[in-house]
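STRUCTURE:
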């Protein structure tokens, strides 16, 4: 569940977050949920400490509407009690004081355009840039940069417009992954491209630098994927017999003494698919803190406590994955379009470095 309206203008700083209380978020029935306000906010604002959340409440920055069957139309009221109990259907709004509102990217920031027409925009996302505000990355995102560029196109649209902000992502890349990101510039183009991604009509090719050198020139990984049971990292994925069907084609583009540059074409779109499949083959991606190394490495990274030994072992600040190419049918003309991004500078530099004796 997002903390902000889907169609808000991301060229402007957010003024508040609005969160609905839903029993399903806690795997409970409606009549089972009874949760303290501070605990609820700690769950959804996980990057903040419990103490800072209690301070927000006591400073009068939090309002609650009960949303119970007996009081369905209750308005939002300021709530200063951290122990206030919430039930399913309540609404919580956290106001962000003006002095604490995070700045957003300005239109003067550089946006690398790979392709553009009246319907589409394809940009080259640099590594370590989140595509959309979420969690602790609420500013400095790709979509904010795009919104700043196109701010004039949605000036004057009413806040209640179902598609007030016309530019929208058609797919996403992990924060660490670089390369092509496709964006729809109007409702019709966005819907058509989203459907094409869902129906697997978009051809995707990634470049990956991996540990190890495959003997074969190419191959196909056909291994089902699902959540990694027993992992202390909730977002980790693993090969599982009962997982979702997952297929990745790969071929070797170049070799180094202990590494290889691969082109990977995912035929399905599972989370972390290429990273997990390459690890399963015995060729984990360089720089990957979650696959191919002990989980302790990722946990130290999450806490900002990577050691010098960890960094030396990883060799790269991010995992070595680049969305090199997207091929699709234009949503208006139906003509074939292929957008390509050259290997990101940090990966190109790493590849040259790996050639050194």
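SEQUENCE:
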């Amino acid at each position: 569940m997002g903390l902000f309206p889907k169609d808000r203008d991301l060229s402007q700083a957010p003024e508040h977050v609005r969160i609905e209380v839903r029993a399903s978020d806690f795997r409970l029935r409606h009549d089972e949920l009874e949760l303290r306000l501070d605990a609820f906010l700690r769950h959804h604002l996980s990057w903040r400490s419990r103490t800072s959340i209690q301070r927000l409440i006591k400073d009068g920055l939090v309002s609650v509407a009960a949303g119970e069957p007996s009081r369905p139309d209750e308005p939002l009221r300021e709530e200063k009690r951290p122990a206030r109990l919430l039930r399913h259907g309540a609404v919580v709004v956290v106001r962000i004081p003006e002095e604490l509102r995070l700045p957003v990217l300005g239109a003067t920031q550089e946006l690398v355009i790979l392709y553009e027409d009246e319907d589409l925009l394809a940009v080259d996302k640099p590594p370590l840039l989140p595509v959309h505000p979420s969690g602790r990355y609420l500013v400095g995102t790709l979509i904010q940069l795009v919104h700043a560029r196109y701010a004039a196109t949605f000036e004057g649209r009413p806040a209640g417009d179902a598609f007030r902000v016309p530019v929208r992502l058609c797919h996403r890349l992990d924060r660490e992954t670089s390369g092509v990101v496709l964006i729809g510039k109007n409702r019709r183009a966005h819907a058509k491209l989203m459907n094409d991604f869902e129906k697997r009509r978009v051809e995707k090719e990634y470049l990956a630098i991996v540990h190890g050198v495959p003997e074969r020139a190419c191959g196909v990984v056909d291994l089902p994927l699902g959540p990694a049971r027993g992992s202390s990292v909730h977002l980790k994925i693993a090969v599982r017999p009962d997982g979702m069907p997952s297929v990745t084609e790969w071929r070797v583009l170049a070799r180094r003494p202990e590494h290889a540059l691969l082109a990977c074409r995912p035929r399905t779109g599972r989370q972390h698919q290429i990273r997990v499949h390459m690890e399963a083959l015995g060729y984990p991606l360089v720089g990957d803190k979650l696959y191919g190394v002990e989980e302790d490495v990722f946990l130290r990274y999450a806490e900002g406590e990577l050691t010098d030994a960890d960094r030396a072992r990883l060799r790269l600040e991010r995992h070595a994955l680049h969305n090199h190419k997207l091929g699709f049918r234009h949503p208006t003309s139906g003509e074939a379009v292929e957008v390509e991004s050259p290997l990101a500078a940090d990966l190109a530099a790493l590849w040259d470095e790996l050639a050194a004796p």
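REMARK: Residues 113-354 form a domain with the Pseudouridine synthase fold (CATH 3.30.2350.10).
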